[in-house]
Structure formats: C-alpha cells, structure tokens
Automatic annotation (TrEMBL):
Gene name linked to the record: LOC110415322
InterPro entries for this protein: THOC7/Mft1
Keyword Metal-binding: no
Gene Ontology cellular component terms for the protein in this record: THO complex part of transcription export complex
The protein's name: THO complex subunit 7A
Alphabetical UniProt keywords: Coiled coil, Nucleus
Stretches the record annotates as Disordered: 222-241
Record GO biological process: mRNA export from nucleus; mRNA processing
UniProt subcellular location: Nucleus
Source taxon at top rank: Eukaryota
Family recorded in the similarity comment: Belongs to the THOC7 family.
Length: 241
C-alpha cells in the first residue's frame, strides 16, 4: 500500500495523510492478511514457513530413494510448524468468540438502555403533566385563599354605610312601586265592577226590548186575525141575503 505520512506545518497544524487506498480497501487488505497470516513484524511469515515445511516434506516423499528417516524428520517438523501455526488461529477464534459474546451482551445492554431511555422519557412526560396539574391546583388554592381572605375581612364602615343607603333606596323604591301597583289594582277592580254593572243593565235592557217586541208582534198578529174574521162574517151575511 502506497501512501504519504502526515505532515506538520510550521504552525504545528497536522495535515491529513493521503493514501492510495480508501478505508474500505484498507479493511479488506488487513482482514486478508490476518486470515492468511502472510505478513509478520519479525522474521518470516508463519504461512510461508508452513508452506516451505510442507513443500520440503512432499518433495522428500516423492523421491525414489530410501529416505524414511528424512521423511519422518520432515513430517515431524511440518506437524510442529502446523501446531505452531494453529495456536494463534485458536487464540484468534477464542478472541472472535469472546468478541461475539461481548457484542451480544452489548446489544442486549443497548436494548435495555434504549428501553430505559424510553421509559425515562415516558416518566418525564408524566411528571411534566403532574407538574402542570400541580401548578394549576396550587394556583386555584391561592385564588381560593385570596377570596376567603377577602370574604372574611370586614369591609370599611364607609362601604357598609353606602351599601345600607343603597338598600334603603331600593326598599323605598320597591314600596313606592308596590303602592302604585295596589292603587292601579284597586282602580282596575272598580273599572271591572262598573263594566260588569253596565253589561248587566245592557242585558236587562235587551231582554225588556225583546219582550216588548214580542208583545207587539203578538198584538199585530191578533189584530190581523180579528180583521180576517170580520171580513169572513160580512161575506157570509151578503151571501144569505
């Protein structure tokens, strides 16, 4: 991987390094090297050493010579190198398993923390509502206490005398209105009694006129009847003669 190191300016400001590969490519390369173990900080890489041991063993086995001891020696060396190569892998696997368990524990802890955060937010909202209700209740209590103090406190003498004067005026006005109403009611009673008397006299007059009219009609009817009888008697006498 090609790249430039960090540069420090005269003012001590650090300038970011420019790399030939991006962060994603760097992660892939580092992961590949860790898996294949092709690089090491000291000496020859373990995988190359293992490869050499295996190659030497295979080449010695493929020879037609009677080299059993040499093959056994190379096989033992290869197995030792394989065990040496396997130990870091087992360690890495243990670290990976531990990291996975830690990750699961972290996720569970994260979920629990998120749940507690949501619960805390809900509790905070509830407490805010209770606080607002308590403020309103306290305000109402203070208003009621102020009203109670106003009610229990005796009013000034001037205000009491003024209220008494106004009440006396109202009583006098009501008495005057009552007197006027009584007089008007008495007048209306007299007018109504007079009206009934007039109606009674008018009814009597109408009845007398009706009786007089009936009597006149009866007398006219009787006179007509008598005239008709007289006329019939004269006609009969003339017929006899």
């Amino acid at each position: 991987m090609l790249g430039k190191g960090r540069k420090v300016s005269s003012r001590g400001e650090t300038v970011a390094a420019n790399y030939a590969f991006g962060p994603a490519e760097d992660d892939i390369i580092i992961k590949h090297r860790l898996l294949t173990r092709t690089t090491t900080t000291r000496g020859e890489p373990p995988l190359k050493k293992l490869q050499k041991k295996f190659t030497s063993f295979v080449l010695e086995v493929e020879k037609d010579e009677d080299n059993y001891n040499e093959c056994a020696k190379l096989s033992k060396a290869f197995l030792q190198e394989l065990s040496t190569f396997e130990i870091p892998l087992l360690k890495s696997k243990a670290v990976i398993d531990s990291n996975l368990r830690e990750k699961e524990n972290f996720n569970e802890l994260k979920d629990e923390i998120n749940r507690q955060i949501l619960q805390a937010q809900t509790d905070i909202e509830d407490l805010k509502k209770q606080l607002e209700e308590s403020k309103i209740e306290r305000q109402h209590k203070e208003e009621c206490e102020a009203i109670r103090k106003l009610i229990s406190a005796p009013p000034p003498r001037s205000e009491t005398q003024k209220s008494i004067t106004e009440l006396e005026k109202e009583i006098a006005a009501l008495e005057a209105e009552n007197t006027a109403g009584s007089r008007l009611l008495e007048l209306r009673k007299k007018q109504f009694a007079l009206l009934l008397h007039v109606v009674d006299e008018l009814q009597n007059t109408i009845e007398e006129e009706q009786k007089s009219l009936i009597e006149e009609m009866r007398m006219v009817t009787e006179e007509q009847k008598s005239g008709m009888e007289d006329a019939n008697g004269g006609s009969e006498a003339m017929a006899v003669d």
